[in-house]
Amino acid sequence: MMHSESLPWHHNEWQILNQYFQQNRIPQALMIKGIKGLGKQRLAHRFAQALLCPQGLENGESCQECKRCKLFKAATHPDCLVLAPEETGKKIGIDAVRTLIEKLSLKPQFDMMRVVLIYSADKLNNAAANAFLKCLEEPNERTCFILITENSAKLPATILSRCQKMMLTKPETELALRWLYQQQVTEKSDVLLNLAQGAPLLAKAYFEEDVLVLRETCFNDWLALSNQQKNPIEIAEQWVKQPIATVLNWLISWVADLIKCAYQVPIIYLSNPDYQPDFQKLVPRLECKALHKFYQYLLQRQQDQETQVNLQILLEALFVLWSQLTSKDLIHGR
Fold this sequence. Notes:
By secondary structure, this protein is α/β, with parallel strands linked by helices. Helix content is 52%, strand content 7%.
């Protein structure tokens, strides 16, 4: 089912989209971009439903009640086409784009616009991106493409140049926390929001998935490694069972915060302020130069996890290096 409910931090963006309606200048291609958890899909669905609704309201919103709105909400509207990876993390291949092109060769079934929603647009592989470019170069009648992406830099410049761009940014902290409270996220909402880089929807998902419990377990493992209390291989066996992208992001943020603490950066600039006392205990045992090198190494390994690399071996190498980095001072009796 497609959700098109409004979110309070989308007010300015919706005003811009509403102007498109009022001035009758619907973009041929609109790109909505921003980090995960800001509601890019919701905004795209809200705009798409409005484009497809024949009973549209004065503020540009869809009526939510007509047959076409109900078809949209059930994801069965014939003039709303979707292009997306078949599986999370996978690329969008050329066959999917060819299928889309075949559908676009037919006229829209209703007398309104036709909308093409492209989820994870940055996942178009090279051949698919080239084929899709032809859609933009030779547009079909009454068709609006809405591209949704967390990483627009991965898209070819030829596609980017043909899109109107809308960048979603994180809302004010007070607004985000108030929304989270309304969603029954009442425990550690500030920590969750910080962990989600200010993205409320992601913070809410973290709450529902008990992510803070996993984060605490992983952090304690990491500290135990620095104190030579656990084996790197055993920890790697545990971590590899978790969402690898998430735990690697945490690890990188902890090391980044360690570096900040070494330079006495104020706590408000830490990504993990709740762990600041633990960082302060570690700092005297570490050499800044070695810590910087380890941070760069982590960033390189983060890119590797998107390839066919053995994740168990990748984690083992990271943990052995971290254990060595933190054991040098122990060996010298510091």
